[in-house]
Amino acid sequence: MEEKAKLSLLTLCNHCDNPPCVRVCPTQATFSRDDGIVLMDFHRCIGCRFCMAGCPYGARSFNYHNPRNFLNEDELSHDFPTREKGVVEKCEFCAHLLDQGERPACVEAAEGVLYFGDLNDPESEVRKVLRDRYSLVRKPKLGTEPQVYYLI
Amino acid sequence: MLEKAIKGSALYWIWLLVLLAVIGVGFGAYLQQLDQGLSVTALDRDISWGLYIAQLTFLVGVAASAVMMVIPMYLHNHKAFARMLILGEFMAVATIIMCLLFVVVDLGQPQRLWNVVLYPTPSSVLFWDMVVLNGYLFLNILIGWVTLQAERKRVGPPRWIKPFIYISIPWAISIHTVTAFLYAGLPGRDFWLTASMAPSFLASAFAAGPALLILLAFAVKIFAIWDPGREAIQSLAKIVTYALAAYLFLIGCKIFTAAYSMVPDKLAHWEYLYFGLEGHTMLSVFMWVSTLAGVSALLILLFPKNRQADNILAFACVLVLISTWIEKGMGLITAGFVPTPMKEVLTYAPTGPEILITLGIYGLGFLIITVLWKVGIGVRREIEA
Fold first, then answer.
1. B43, B47, B56, B109: which to substitute to probe chain A, counting the most A Cβ within 10 Å?
2. What contacts A26, CB < 8 A, 6 or more positions away?
3. What pTM value is reported for the model?
């Protein structure tokens, strides 16, 4: 039998429409924003890590260390508040950039390989791409309704 | 009644000092954890719960098992437990306090614990776990203290306490059910995603709790020279035997489902647990110890003659505790996370600070049991004198 090819894939947060991480959080520190992005309130999170167990995609991480220990002060962006130890981290689709009308940093950096937009808008770029190309979501059977699609 | 806790033999005070030393060392390690964060533990992105949550899971069961004396005593008028029930209730108090502390030391931001109350979230099982654990703590302190005070005055317990006693029965079941639901409702964690979680939690609880109680009763017999009663211990031994059989049966059921269906996502966790995957075999050594200890204990306890011999019963109870402590603790938690959602295989081995903090909490638990039992047994002695 032929050996299966190994592909490197981005396994970012799926920003599920029915997110188990939000369901299990005991303080509502993680929540779905009206636009469907799953966000964290880093000042409310108690660091119980229930959301990490609840996420079927391994998309969450935790600040076991003080993140500042690993940062180069000279290269810091001051547009974004510093993080602290003891709270859960996740991909936020760069919500702070979205709020300024920009696109997420990964989409910017990927130069046309990643698409980003409003799935509810039939005219959006993402909807057009999804219409034209075959796509998959991770673990659809779990009913989490991921909003990140992988184009084949 | 508390004054009975400050009059004791030299041995009593030495024991308390030893426990205080263990607590002190654990507290020191916790200060280090507060300073450096959970980076002092072996936890990581993939195995994000470990030794602390394992102890929570195991000890909630021990706490819930007090109900195995309350039911026979109050619903079936099984008088043999009358002398010993207070010990079970006080043990529940100590173990619930340990459980709550194991939750707190596991938090990344413990000073924000109050957020769980400020932003109550009924969709979170952890919110409900907090409700039922604190409620059970309150019930046991109330019932234990009021009934003991009544006994001391040589009157029956007041009538108003009866509803609390009856409520405590389903409440005890609820604490371990809700704790099982912490795991059993998570999509994508195939090892935990099974309806048999709560029943198997309860089965191991009703084996482990009474087994610990029997061992502590023997310790009381030797060190406090007070006999909780042979019939009570024999009744507990029967409960351990039945519950142990149910616990092993439920493990067998889970293994059957995984092994016969051969669904890789189910099976991989069991392979990791018992044989190891990709060279990660440390946990499997523990699991074989757990299973062999459990099966051996059952083979011993099935024979009434063995149960009736104190030393053999004590040995079997130690085996039960080893078996359930490994299975309901490290085995259940780690194998739930491995293989990870990314299909990676890892090993989790707790660090020194993690172990010291854990021992510190156990030290505090034993300190509470010692002091409360000193009071309980002191009052009993006074009545029986």
1. B109
2. A46, A48, A50, B115, B116, B121, B124, B126, B127, B130
3. 0.94
Count of beta carbons in the 10 Å neighbourhood of residue A144? 24
Q: Which CATH number fits domain A20-151: 3.30.1120.10, 3.30.70.20, 3.10.310.10, 3.10.129.10?
A: 3.30.70.20
Q: Which residues of B touch A58 (CB under 8 A)?
A: 45-46, 340-342
Tens-digit pLDDT profile for residues B76-95: 988 889 888 999 999 999 99
Query: Would you state the structure tokens that stand for residue A47, as one six-digit string?
Result: 């660091």
By the 8 A CB rule, do B244 and B207 touch? yes
- A32 DSSP β-pair partners: A38
Q: Where along chain A do its domains lie?
A: 20-151
What confidence score (pLDDT) does residue B225 get? 86
pLDDT in tens, A84-123: 999 999 999 999 999 999 999 999 998 889 999 999 999 9
pLDDT at B18: 97
What burial class does residue A101 get, using C-beta atoms within 10 Å of its C-beta: 0-12 exposed, 13-18 middle, 19+ buried? Answer: exposed
Domains of chain B as residue ranges with CATH:
2-384 (1.20.1630.10)
pLDDT digits (tens, 9 = 90+) for A9-42: 888 999 999 999 999 999 999 999 999 999 999 9
Do the chains contact at B126 and A64, CB–CB below 8 Å?
no
Number of CB atoms found within 10 A of residue B285's CB: 11
